[in-house]
């Protein structure tokens, strides 16, 4: 099998690095001399939360395996080589149908199988209140039920479930879900600090888009954001599109979490990648995508989801915050890659450049913009 050698700058050292690839795997890494203006070579980006992209919706009325394939290819062209389809609140039948579509895509398309390690189910066990609930269908929100989660799991590989631990009795349900091999994330919640700590004691290990999916006004302390930032057992996703979190809040949260707990997500929806304009969506109705990438409801101006890819988020963090390129890349690769390896027992190795890992690589310019994606091929 022929060896392909890719050369660029390393964000870890600033020096040159040569990556040897055979088939779909990295087989060797070595230091080398490169031009100071050479592009940076980094692992393919890993997005743990994608609802849709480029006109395709994971949560379509008629779930479609082809749509999962199209999202995979559109994201891959932008440097996002591993992604987790996010199935949102719905009836049990709707959730299972969406899982079936993802499973069909994984089983029929090797490109999807290489990119999609599992599914994230966001809801339906969320806060029923306006604000923390976000755009999730209030009529489908219901109490946590581990037995329902077990039924979902017969339709596809679920990596984690986002829920709100606002009920003091939910810790038993959380423990049962975790015991089944599915991780639990805290999100879309009006839970208090004590309830969040009980959820973590029961096995919750993640926070879904921290700082969003919560009341817009909170007590200055204590509150659920402080509780999650202070809980060392939680790794927290942050939406880095420049609209869900302002730069100062994003920076403060990322610094408080540190490099082992903070990770980037896009939370992209179907209109991500679309041209600016007004659109009508199945959830929420009339929305507007502004020229600066903000997706908002036409009548209220409230956010209607993210229109950014994870590659866009890396660029925003690099250019709009003091975290810089190396930090942005780490948040988009290292931590989410660790989470995927843990939840798949090492079966899906993403987010790092090491021998044996899948050869998903991205070349970046100094502003964090993805220039080119390289994906290893089997054989």
Automatic annotation (TrEMBL):
Belongs to the metallo-dependent hydrolases superfamily. NagA family. The keyword Metal-binding applies. One of its GO terms (molecular function) is N-acetylglucosamine-6-phosphate deacetylase activity. It is an enzyme of class 3 (hydrolase). Its EC number is 3.5.1.25. This is N-acetylglucosamine-6-phosphate deacetylase. Transmembrane segments: none annotated. Keywords: Carbohydrate metabolism, Hydrolase, Metal-binding. InterPro entries: GlcNAc_6-P_deAcase, Metal-dep_hydrolase_composite, Metal_Hydrolase.
